[in-house]
Structure formats: structure tokens, C-alpha cells
Specification:
Beta-Lactamase; Helix Hairpins; Heat Shock Protein 90; 3 domains; seven-stranded antiparallel sheet; 13 helices; 14 strands; about 20% strand
Length: about 475
């Protein structure tokens, strides 16, 4: 019943080339896959008048790799196509021809990569429809002949096009077949382009949805951390108070062993409270709920207030703590005093914590351009160059450095990350320098020198945030 067709896909006349150019613009100007496949099966009939030449139905089938079948994708919108659908025992989109059906002409056109012609529809519907069912469809549509062309992309088949007409194959001119062959080549390119575009669009939507879910989860995480921190801080503060009273002898004398146990518990509670506070601070910073109270203050006042907090610990450990602000001491900077004091206490506290017995920590400052830079230098173990970048990350612990010695084990790995965040909120920078292991380290950060313009600008930013309803907090 079927006949192989000779290759007539090369355009041979000016009219054919112009027609193909028109079809190409119609199909390739659309990237949406669903729109493309509809234009494919209707373009030849409506745009080029092939209905007048007896072509009644065009069907596009594409290869489904997952199922290993040729699957019906789109059907031309004609009366004949409607009648075929109404007569079919199987719905159009459920017709799937397995590649194992070697007698099916669609499969042969696909695997042998050449066109065929048939006047007997069972050859294109087996094994999905029985011969009687296929003939019923063919008669209902009034189809005499079907031309079957493989759809190719880069030398590989991706599907098959079926051109069905109400005339015999001998009545179809070479010019008609020539244009159909060229049209089929355009179809392969159009389908591939639309698939790629649709895949990109689908991925874009999925990424947007995933990003929205991540933002929602991140918001819930911040809310949980904030709530949990508040709830944990209250009982821990009470535990700390009772432990302090016990250590102070308020409940009666303690044995040496009892005092040791309570002292360890008191220290552990302190560390736990600091960890909770750090987590709460990070949650507030990252969620934009920290509002800065910008004022101008002398750099000496800022440093001396912080030194008073850490000096008792330095004396206890035998660490020499010096301050030299030089000419920059009277320079006024713009900052939130409480927040920058926390930065100073953290950095100086770290230097004291990790300095050797009898060591020295020096705090200095100097003017650089429109900023004052504060330096905290210690003569501790120092850092290797490759470890410096890790220090300002959350939960950063640099292996085999002063960060991991016995005293550092009491830290949370969050202090420097919080300090960096606070300094950057002040439009400043924070960094560390070290000549290497055993040569100490210098932590530095910068603050803007105060002038009316800078102070007004930073205060205005604070007021803008407050206007957005950001909570005023102390961290």
C-alpha cells in the first residue's frame, strides 16, 4: 500500500523559496512551544493556500524519549480533522506509536529518515487502532493519500509530519512536495528553538518559585531565631543570677568541690547567653531590624569607654593594654556609640583572650582620608594569609591558629561576623593583617569623620528606616 518517496526537499523555484521564507517568518517568530506547534499544522494550509490544493489534515508527532514512542502533538484546525477526531476510537493525544512497531510508516520514516506515502491509514495507526478503526477515520475525513516526512534537527530525527489530502499521490505536483520537504526542515528548527525557549522559561519560573520559598523560609528562620533567643535568654539569666548568689555564699558556705562545679556552670551559662545574644543580633542585622542612632563623638571617648570594659580582664591575665590615639584623638566620627563600642570590646577582648601570658595589646588610631582608622594590635600567634579571609564569616574557626587555642574554645565564632556587619552599616570597612604564624595580628576598622553633610545623610537614612517600621533594638 505504501510507496517510498524520492528526496525533493531542495527548493527548486523562486516561488518555492519565497513561500518557504514566508512560512519561516511565521513559525520562527514565535518561541512559545504550544503556539509554534499550532502554527506548524495550520501555516501550510492557511498561509499558502494548500487547502485549495486538496491538503486537508496536517499532524505533528514528536519523539518522547521517556516512553520511547511517537506522540501526537498538534492537529490542523479543519473540518476534515474534526470529523476524523469524532470518528476515532482513541482520543488524538492518547495515540502513541511505540518505536517497536516496525510496520508503522511513521516509525519507518522516523528510523529510516526518509519520506513515505500511503493510501491506507492502518499503516500509520497500527497498533493503536485496528485496521477497521483506522479505515473508519480515513473515510470520515475523506482522505485518499497521506505523505509522511521525518522532522530532522542536526541530522537526527525528532518526529514526523503527516500531510493528508483528498487526492491521489499522482495528482500532487513536484512543486508541492518540494515545498513540503523544505517546510519540514523549518519545522525541525522551530520545534527545537521553542523547546529550548520553553525549557528556559520553565526553569526561570521554577527558580523564581524556589527563590520565593527560600525567602519565606529565611524569614521564618529569622522569626524563629529571634523568638527562641528571647525565650531562652530569660531562664538563662535567672540561672546565672542564682549561680552567682550561690558562688557569693548567699546560700551558705560551699565546699571546694561545690564551688568548682558551680563556677564551671556559671561560666558555661555565660557562654550560652552570649551565643543566644549573638544569634539574636545576627537575626536582627540580616533581617534589617537594626536601627542605628548616629551621633558625633570623639574617637578617644569611644575607645576609652570600651577599654574600661575589658581592662579588668587584661589585668587578670597579666596582659599589658595601651592606648595611643595621637593627634586623631580629638577627631569626631559619626557612629552609633553603643554598636561601635560592642565592636571595640569584641576586637580588644579577642586580642586579650589570645595574647600570650605577659603579652601586650595596643590600641591606636589615625586619620586616613575622610575616615579615622582604629587599630588593635596583639603579639599573639598570628595568622597564615590563607586563613585571614575566613575570620569574618559566621561560625568561623581557623584551624591551627590562635582562634582554636584553649581560650578560644569559649567563643562562638560569631563575634567578628557581627562586628563586620555593624561596621559596614556605618559605611566603614574592617580587616585584619598578620605577618604570619607567631608574629601577631592587627585588626582594623574605619569610621567616617563627622561633618554636617555626613551626619545629616546618615541620620536621614536612619529616619528613613524608622519610617519603614524597622524596630529599634539594642544589640
Amino acid at each position: 500500500m505504501f510507496k517510498p518517496m524520492t528526496d525533493t526537499t531542495t527548493p527548486q523555484t523562486k516561488e518555492t523559496i519565497e513561500a518557504l521564507w514566508r512560512l519561516q517568518k511565521i513559525i520562527l517568530n514565535t518561541l512559545n512551544f504550544n503556539e509554534v506547534v499550532e502554527k506548524i499544522v495550520n501555516g501550510l494550509l492557511t498561509e499558502l493556500g494548500y487547502l485549495d490544493l486538496g491538503y486537508r489534515i496536517i499532524v505533528l508527532t514528536l519523539f518522547d524519549k521517556d516512553k520511547n514512542v511517537l506522540k501526537r502533538i498538534s492537529l490542523s484546525q479543519t473540518d476534515e480533522a474534526r470529523k476524523a477526531l469524532e470518528a476515532s476510537a482513541v482520543p488524538f493525544h492518547e495515540i502513541e506509536i511505540p518505536l517497536s512497531a516496525k510496520d508503522n510508516l511513521l516509525i519507518r520514516a522516523f528510523t529510516e529518515q526518509k519520506p513515505f506515502v500511503t493510501e491506507y491509514w492502518p499503516e500509520i495507526f497500527t497498533p493503536v487502532l485496528t485496521p477497521d478503526e483506522a479505515i473508519t477515520n480515513q473515510k470520515a475525513a475523506g482522505i485518499k493519500t497521506s505523505l509522511i516526512y521525518p522532522v530532522m534537527v542536526k541530522g537526527s530525527p525528532i518526529g514526523v509530519l503527516i500531510f493528508s489530502m483528498n487526492k491521489a499521490n499522482s495528482e500532487a505536483s513536484d512543486e508541492e512536495k518540494n515545498l513540503i520537504g523544505g517546510f519540514t526542515d523549518i519545522v525541525g528548527l522551530a520545534v527545537e528553538n521553542s523547546r529550548l525557549y520553553s525549557a528556559v522559561e520553565s526553569t526561570k519560573v521554577e527558580l523564581e518559585e524556589a527563590n520565593n520559598r527560600l525567602q519565606e523560609l529565611d524569614k521564618k528562620k529569622d522569626e524563629f531565631v529571634s523568638l527562641a533567643s528571647h525565650e531562652l535568654r530569660t531562664p538563662m539569666t535567672a540561672i546565672k543570677s542564682y549561680l552567682w548568689m550561690a558562688l557569693a555564699g548567699r546560700g551558705g558556705p560551699l565546699t571546694e568541690k561545690q564551688h568548682y562545679y558551680l563556677d564551671r556552670s556559671y561560666s558555661s551559662t555565660n557562654r550560652l547567653i552570649k551565643l543566644v545574644n549573638d544569634l539574636l543580633n545576627i537575626s536582627r542585622i540580616e533581617s534589617g531590624r537594626v536601627v542605628l542612632d548616629f551621633v558625633e563623638t570623639k574617637i578617644t571617648d569611644l575607645i576609652n569607654n570600651s577599654i574600661s570594659e575589658v581592662k579588668p580582664r587584661a589585668n587578670e591575665l597579666g596582659i599589658k593594654l595601651t592606648v595611643d590615639c595621637g593627634p586623631s584623638g580629638d577627631t569626631k566620627v559619626v557612629c552609633d556609640v553603643d554598636k561601635i563600642s560592642e565592636v571595640l570590646i569584641n576586637i580588644i577582648g579577642n586580642a586579650i583572650k589570645f595574647a600570650p601570658d605577659g603579652g601586650e595589646v595596643a590600641v591606636t588610631s589615625g586619620v586616613q582620608g575622610d575616615t579615622v582608622v582604629v587599630h588593635v594590635k596583639d603579639n599573639g600567634e598570628g595568622l597564615e594569609p590563607e586563613d585571614i579571609g575566613r575570620l569574618f564569616q559566621k561560625f568561623s574557626l581557623v584551624k591551627e591558629s590562635y582562634i582554636t587555642n584553649q581560650r578560644a574554645s569559649q567563643g562562638t565564632g560569631l563575634g567578628l561576623y557581627i562586628s563586620k556587619s555593624i561596621v559596614e552599616l556605618h559605611k566603614g570597612k574592617i580587616w585584619v593583617e598578620s605577618a604570619g604564624r607567631g608574629k601577631g595580628s592587627t585588626f582594623s576598622f574605619s569610621l567616617k569623620i563627622s561633618n554636617p553633610e555626613i551626619l545629616e545623610t546618615m541620620q536621614k537614612e536612619y529616619r528613613g528606616k524608622e519610617g519603614l517600621g524597622i524596630l529599634r533594638t539594642t544589640i
